[in-house]
Amino acid sequence: MYITLTNAAEAHRGNKISINADLIATIHEAFVGEGDVTELKTFVFCPPHGTWEVCESLENIVTLLNGVPRVHF
């Protein structure tokens, strides 16, 4: 199952991205920027592929993930 989020990386800001929910290992938020110009971003870590910066809040993503049915093998 996939969840669709909004890319927050500078080069792809605003573009939608669908991530396989089963690949997500961790999610965290952090303020990023310089000086007085900072913004809150959410980071979704999907090993071994790396980390995605997204606009949605940590709480919103957790709610989405909790609604995704899990595949049991």
Question: Any overview of this molecule?
Answer:
This protein is mainly β. It has one domain. 12% of the residues lie in helices and 47% in strands. It has one helix and five strands; from the N terminus they run βββββα. The chain has one helix spanning 58-66, and strands spanning 2-6, 16-20, 26-34, 37-46, 50-54. Strands 3-4-5 form a three-stranded antiparallel beta sheet, covered by helices on one side. A two-stranded antiparallel ribbon has the order 1-2. A hairpin with a 2-residue loop joins β3 (26-34) and β4. It is elongated. The model has no long low-confidence stretch (mean pLDDT 91).
Structural features:
73 residues; mainly beta; two-stranded antiparallel ribbon; elongated
Radius of gyration: 13 Å
Low-confidence stretches: none
Indicate the overall shape. elongated
The major β-sheet equals: 3 strands, antiparallel
SSE ordering: EEEEEH
Share of residues in strands: over 45%
The total of beta strands comes to 5
Computed structural class:
mainly beta
What is the topology, as strand order, of the major beta sheet? 3-4-5
Overall helicity? 10-25%
Distance between the termini: 14 Å
Mean pLDDT: 91
Tally of separate domains:
1
Q: How large is the count of helical segments?
A: 1
Topology:
Elements: E1 2-6, E2 16-20, E3 26-34, E4 37-46, E5 50-54, H1 58-66
Antiparallel strand pairs: 1-2, 3-4, 4-5
